[in-house]
Every structure is written in structure tokens, then in C-alpha cells.
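Ticket #4471: structure output looks truncated?

Reporter: J.K.
Steps to reproduce: submitted the chain below (338 residues) through the standard prediction queue, then opened the result file.
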Amino acid sequence: MEILAFGVQADEKPLLEAAFEGHHEVRCLDVFLNEDTAPIAAGYEIVSTSVNADLGARVLRTLAAGGTKLIAQRSTGFNNIDLGVAQQLGLTVARVAHYSPYSVAEFAWTLAMAVNRRIVRAATRTRDFDFRLDGLMGRDLHGSTVGVLGTGRIGEAFTRIAHGFGTRLLGWDITENPVCVALGMTYTDKERLFAESDLISLHVPLTPATRHLVDGRALKSMKDDAILVNSSRGGLIDTDALVGELRAGRFTGVGLDVYEAEAGLFFQDRSLEVVEDDTLARLVTFPNVVVTSHQAYYTEEAVAQIVAATLQNVLDHTAGRRGENVLVPAAVVQEGDD
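Returned output as attached by the reporter:
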């Protein structure tokens, strides 16, 4: 059987092909699944998609009409999939329940350190042989207060690193993680976390309840010199409100690996085009902001685990087994932490 994989990155393609060799053929496309590209999947029983695929009702109906039976998403989060419509259409939807939490946690700290120590600005200057230190002063994170929203696998890994820095730890989640408590974390309400933290990092899934978790009110309650990092989902932050606070000169730095309107932009080369997203265009102009293109997960270890899980999802489907990664059909769906 030939599998059709959408949104495959150049580094990911050989890993996918090697994993599927001896099992099934895989056709890798660099285009992303959306309403325009969905007809390409006609005749393919199994389709694999990336995190920024559009799997809304219209796309799902096109896939089902073309004969697709399984959608194997190569990510943990699935906020881009209309699971109710998929269930109605009789589609099976599977994801990657987990992969290396260190990939995202380490990258979140990379963003935090980059904005704190002005790494991007410093590197740009030295390329022009400008070796002045003006405007490059950061601060010690040792002894500062770090707030972690979401203390699942990734949040725990982030907390372990924070503990190594010698920070005071505040946490917010539905349930307490005993590992984080053992590391000295105090769980509190998010209002106190926003108000007291010097560094805030987001590690919760995007659901209707968490959309714009960091809204205008939350942003205003943060310290003027706080550092905010988001390596989870763009929709957790009200970006327009964030731009307003940045224009007012607030925050030491903001590190964003995700953006709420990233679909259709991230993972693509738009350097020769006019980007019509005024919010993003303004966001990247702030000298205290670093934006990367949803690459926190992108390590050899994490991608290998994602590919292996995707293969297992396909093998389970073709063998008639229900694997642990199946979301639909399901009576109750619980989303993962990234």
C-alpha cells in the first residue's frame, strides 16, 4: 500500500522513507494539506499530515469522499482536526501521543536565554564587525522566579532545567506533578504566577479553555521586565494584545516558536512575497522579540520517535488493531500537552 504524507520537511523525508521501507511505500509531499490540496489524496486509504494541516470539516469530507480511511497526524497536538466530523465520516484519526520532551523544553530555554542575553542582536552586530556591548546587557536568571504553565512531560523537563539554574519555581496546572513539587515548585493560581514570575513559559495544550490563556489582562499583570516564552501553541497568547504591550515598551524579551496564525506561513519560504499578516510583520520588528518557525520539536531524537509512532499507527490500522494513539473513534478524547 502507498501512504500519502503531506507537509514533509526535507530532513524528515529520508527518515520516513527508511522507516516505511519493507512495510509500505510512502509518497512524501512538501505541500500542506488544506482545501486546495486535499483532492491530491483521492485514492489513498492512509494519509499522514503535519501539525499545521487544515483538517476542518470540508477537508475531511474531501478525504472521505476520496477513499481515505486513516489520518495519521505526525504531532501530539490535534487542535487543527475536527474530531466530531471525522467520527461522523467514519475516519480513523491517530496522532503521536508523545515524543522527546527534552526537544521542546531545551528549545524553550534557548529562546529564554536568547532574548535575555540579546544573542540575535549581538550576532548580527559582529557580522558587521560592530563589537560594542551597548544595549546587550542581560541579567542572571539564578535566583529569579520562573513560572511554568503546564507541568506535563514537557513542563517537567523545563522545570528540571529551571531547577538547575537555581530559580524559584511557580507552577499552574489541573493536577500537580510530584516530580516538580520535589524540585521545589509551588503550585498557585495563574494570576499569582503572572504577577510574580520573572520568566514565564507555556506548556499547555490549545483547547477552547486555554485559547488566549495569556490575554490582555494577563499581559498587563506581568512585570514590566518579564520574559515570556511560548513553544506550545500560538493560540495560547492574544498576539494583538501582546503587540500592544510591546509597543508600550514592556518586557525584557519575548520568545515565540509558535504563532496563532502560523498556518500557511510557517514551514514555507515566503521571503520573496509580501506577507499580509500585519500583526506578525509588526511582531518581528521589535528588538526584544525572537520568533522562530515552530521548530522546538525538531531534533533527530524527537523526529525519529514521531516517525516510528506514525509507522506503528499505520501498521495497527492495516492489521485491524486499535493502537494507543487513536483519537477517533473514541468515546472520550483527552489532548496531550504539546
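Triage note (M.O.): checked the attachment and the full C-alpha cell line is present. Residues 300-318 form the longest helix (19 residues).
Status: closed, working as intended.
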